[in-house]
Amino acid sequence: MKSSELGLSAMYRILKKAGAERVSDESANELRNIIEEIAKTIAKNAVDISNHAKRKTIKASDIKFASRSLLKV
Question: Does pTM top 0.70 for this prediction?
Answer without folding.
Answer: yes
